[in-house]
From TrEMBL:
SUPFAM superfamilies: LuxS/MPP-like metallohydrolase (SSF63411). Pfam families: Peptidase_M16, Peptidase_M16_C. The keyword tRNA-binding does not apply. Belongs to the peptidase M16 family. Keywords: Hydrolase, Metalloprotease, Protease, Signal, Zinc. Residues 230-416, 724-892 form the Peptidase M16 C-terminal domain. InterPro entries: Metalloenz_LuxS/M16, Pept_M16_N, Peptidase_M16, Peptidase_M16_C. Residues 79-215 form the Peptidase M16 N-terminal domain. It comes from the Bacteria. The keyword Membrane does not apply. This is Insulinase family protein. Residues 1-27 form the signal peptide.
Amino acid sequence: MKTFPRAACSLACLLLLAQVPALPVLAQQAEVPATLLADTQDPWLYRNSDIPHDKAWHFGEMSNGLRYAVRKNGVPPGQVSIRIRVDAGSLYETDSERGYAHLLEHMLFRQSKYLAEGTAIAAFQRLGATFGSDTNAQTTTTETVFKLDLPNATPGSLDETFKLLSGMVTAPTLSASNLKKDLPIVLAEMRERGGAAKRLQDAMQQVFYAGQPLSEREPIGTVETLTATTPKSVRAFYSRWYRPDNVTVIVAGDADPAMLESYVHKWFGDWSASGPLAPVPSFGDPVAPRGVDPKNPVGETRVLVEPDLPPSLMYAILRPWRQVNDTIVYNQGLMTDSIAQAIINRRLESKARAGGSFLSASVNQNDVARSADATFVSVTPLGDDWKAALHDVRAVIADALTRPPTQEEIDREVAELDVAFQVPVEQQRILPGSKLADDLVNALDIRETVAAPDDVLNIFRESKPLFTPAKVLEHTRKLFSGTVTRALFTVQKPGEVTDKALQQALLEPVRPDQSIRMAAEAAPVSFDKLPAIGTAAEPIADQPTGLLDIEQLTFANGVKVMLWPVTEEPGRVMVKVRFGGGYRSIDPRDAPYIALGQYALVGSGVATLGQEDLDRIATGRKMGFDFDVHDATFELSAETRPQDLADQLYLFAAKLDLPKWDKNPFLRAKAAAKIQYDTYATSPQGVLNRDLQFYQRGQDPRFATPTPTEIEATTPEGFKRVWSKALSQGPVEVQIFGDFDKVKAIAALEKTFGALKPRTPAPSTADVTEVQVPRPSEKAIVLHHHGDPDQAAAVISWPTGGGSLGIRESRQLEILTQLFSNRLLDAMREKLGVSYAPYVFSTWPVDLQAGGSITAMAQLDPKSVPVFFQVADEIAQDLIANPPTADELERVTEPLRQQVTRAASSTSFFMSQLEGATSDPSRLGSVRTVLSDYTVTTPQTMQQLAARYLGEGSSWRLEVVPEKDKTSVATR
């Protein structure tokens, strides 16, 4: 019952949580057994466990050995999520089979008993499932999982889906033709995942798991083993592991569990296997080299030189992994481990924030691929003195190993965990079935169970007396004890550090650092003691919008608020504040401050609260503080709870009216931005992440990723100047959607946003630099990366438009884009095999009158770049010359229909659609037509749109090629 991730830095992301469906469910018409399936007293998942059974799941085992679990879930309405888990991944391969588990994942989609060659994608699209999101699969070191989220599930579509999936898993074709077509796709995927990041990942595997299969068993495999594959060899791997007694079917969705069970029996009941199941291969144990001091067992260390990656040091304390019985006592130990890690991570973060030798550091315990129980320590040094950074981190850890934490520190982390466990209880009715199914898959992989949210919370709260200083100290010491310690240090220049120097630094004794512990014991902060925003003011208008039960408030200071209280999303409140002028309001000469604001604006504080105070005041609360910059607006957003809404509104309003200007977050952001910059050049995708938006917006410097030189030129004074102006300008729109009391929310608004002082008017059109669009050109802009010589990327983009008046056209363009994307995928991946995941996307800035585009892109090898441009041009011209067929159009509109229908079951969908509606009421009306805009069209309409936007001479191009191929350069 992994109740939370063991990474203490993300305690709110809970695992294995169940729910009771509350939203409308689909009426089922199929014949099903008269009685609901009966679980045994001890279902297979809970054997040897005293964890309370999650009664919403119904478990079964068939005579052929196949296990299954089904449950009813109504989120989103009409959807059924199916997972087929094969207990075999890359660690189950022999030396000559490396990459086979992943290759099989591809080949099962290629052709099978009920699917002709190359028809799987189209078949699932006709059922309304989008390829890549609703239909997918993944292969890890320990499992292969096939996933399908079937929207608008009916007895007929469910039966057809189970039929198709069962044919894929139980009777794939695995022919020479299949292998010939899938092998280039897998090799393209391998190529696209290469580069510096892949070399770093490989080095980590080799160092940390030296002597174990995991050190060399990446799921992607090797070129040598993959190119040597034959239909006979891949079928041998399939026959060994794809058998009913090694497979589990998991289904969660808006249907009767008995009916779901009947489909499992119908389509998997006849599957049989010959002979006994092969034993699981040994994954080995981490072992210390001979002669290593058992009291300080530092083993393998390696220094990896990667010029484009930031200096990064990681060491791991490794222990053998052993399967355990998933009991309450075991989970109480995990909770104590988590508290111990959270205390250390909070101390490390406090030390980093104060300025010093490292930018960031963290500890994280994890069970890795059933191969090692490891505690990882990660350090990003600041400057060249890496020894000081490592020493300072180890000193904080040494203090945690020397003396127990205070009860106050423990109570703080317990309060955080309590909220993390309480939120799923409050929100269990809105947890998607896909999440429930994935959580059960994860439980099977780590050999543990699942529990309902109420049971998780009860176990935690009943365990609180166990979380004592002495017990946390005991668990801390266990976390930092092991068989062997290994380390990897990534540096940018050769000769800076040696393997021996790294090993010696880990062997050196350190004196415990108590200074941060003292800071962690600071007095609590209370909202009651914070300064008022201003004089509270009642709204001057409160009127219905005419859409659902959404209301609009207007305050005398110009603030406008959209309120939508609902009961269908218990325990969740979404808050969004849009203000100011976004990118277009920033002077291009101040462009570097945009990125730094995204890093540091929130951390610079509000009112009397610095970053440490913000953390402390939110202890035991569910509050957020996300910040983003859009074309013509800035945005603060958070997910909170009804009881925390008033204080959440105070934080947002204080950011606008009572900003604090702590320079430490700014200095830390500068350091992070400079360190990160070089990483963009490690791959074609990195270069696109860095530069694509810059070129899409006519090389406007505001959309550029600032260089280290530009970052270095910024100052705390400049940061305050730019962002003080941005925070104070323009109208304010607040959206509050979700589970809240309207009267209490308005009272909180009166004290916060209603109390804001009058805003400085937004810059007029004459005072802003409008966003530009690139000029069409057949000559590609050429950029370069420092990665592998067989990697490249190509982009072709057609400018479109923008503005709220064109929303319907933007939605119709999404249909055209999906048509284009399907054809590009078929040509570049399925037929030519030169790109793993080419795709096409459309953007349409609603707040601007220009700047939208249709963009096609692909990662591929350099020699195929001209092929991409030729294929993309041919597809564009064919869409202009010939309307799509009715079937081709249906394969796009039906998945879009299901996407919109599912999205519209959440208030967050309406929140996004209604952004800006308080100043542009036309957006209210456009919500009413969203479904028809995305799904009702004609082949002739698509042809007309293609002619309008995809014509010859209207596009511009960009390619990213290896540095060694540099013949011409186009850079900022």
